[in-house]
Amino acid sequence: RTETALQENQDHLQGFLDQAADWIWEMDETGVVTYASDAYFRITGLSAETVVGHDLEEIWQASGTRSSEDEFTRAIANREAFRDLLIMRILHDGRQFWIQTSGTPNFDEDGNFRGFSGVSRDFTENKKIADELQETTRLLQTVLDNVPVSISFRDMDGKFIFVNQEGARQLGRPTEAFIGKSMAELFGPDHGFGSEPYVQRAIAEPIRDRTYSYLRQGEQDDSTHRRELLANFIPARDELGRMTGVVLVSQDITELRRTESALRENQARLQGFLEHAGDWLWERDENGRLSYLS
Predict the structure, then answer these.
(1) In this predicted structure, what is the pLDDT of residue 32?
(2) CA nearest 83: which of 114, 113, 121, 51?
(3) Which of 126, 74, 121, 81 is nearest to 100 (CA)?
(4) If DSSP codes are grouped into helix, strand and coil, which group holds residue 284?
(5) Which position has the higher pLDDT, 31 or 292?
(6) Res 16: pLDDT
């Protein structure tokens, strides 16, 4: 009865291993594979005859990816456990697989090394998705860092999660200095930046096209300059509608305001000159109607 129960348990375990997405493997003290569960053969298309009884170099080609593969080789050589190493493997027919693998050295009761056992999974599709996401993120970062407006995101505690290069330039700090910090932590409790009241109010509702000003320290000296910004404060929500923070998009309109002010001054001077001149100016539109008379 005991033998029958043991056989049934082994059959149940083998059935589970054969259907699992991960595979279990073992190799002896010389690096020869002594066991691999069916998932390995199902995913790679290899047969047991080409794997069991062979070392890894006979099964895979060198991939040329160094960091994790070096760590794997070092762990095997030093008989050390390793966990969740991501390694690219190339079959001799040229097919490539990304494998996430963990392993533990085995020792007998006398302390003699008897090889390794471990578990691995096919990570090829996950790696492809991760690489595509990384490339998309890189392109998005490039776009955000080249637009002439400040874009930042702060969480519910007012700490920066993201700021683009223009936003960092406006505030006079490198981008990496902002992450995980609040304005008070960066510039002190009396920093005087006019955006903070709007950030708190934007948690309740968006604030659009709001103008505010602040003093910015000069890039070449300790002098300060008042800057004027046109800003939008937009509450951010997750897929469940929960508030996660505030997006701030702002544009430095200081030079625009100076230009507008100079234009108004020139118009006023011109108007004053015309009103005191001996001659007068007039204009007619395309219909012959008088449109201006000094």
Answers:
(1) 93
(2) 121
(3) 121
(4) strand
(5) 31
(6) 46
Tokens 């595979």 found at: 23
Report the distance separating Cα 127 and Cα 134, nearest Å.
10
230 neighbors 251 (Cβ within 8 angstroms): yes
Q: For residues 131 and 156, give the distance between their C-alpha atoms in angstroms, rounded to a whole number.
A: 30
What whole-number distance in Å separates Cα of residue 33 and Cα of residue 51? Answer: 7
Return the number of other C-beta atoms located less than 10 Å from residue 164's C-beta: 20
Largest CA distance in the chain: 125
Q: How far apart are the first and last CA of the chain?
A: 117
Cβ atoms within 10 Å of 183's Cβ, excluding its own = 20
Spatial separation of the C-alpha atoms in residues 157 and 200, rounded to whole Å:
10
**Two tokens, residue 201:** 């109010």
Q: What is the CA radius of gyration of the chain?
A: 34
Predicted confidence (pLDDT) per residue in 41-98, tens digit: 888 888 889 899 998 878 877 665 666 778 888 999 999 999 999 888 888 788 888 9
Distance CA 206, CA 238 (A): 16
Sign of the alpha-carbon torsion through 44, 46, 47, 52: negative
- How many whole angstroms separate alpha carbon 169 and alpha carbon 184? 18
CA dihedral 152, 155, 158, 159 (to 10 degrees): -70
Residue type, 235: P
Rounded CA gap, 250 and 209, in Å? 9
* CA pair distance 208, 230, nearest whole angstrom: 9
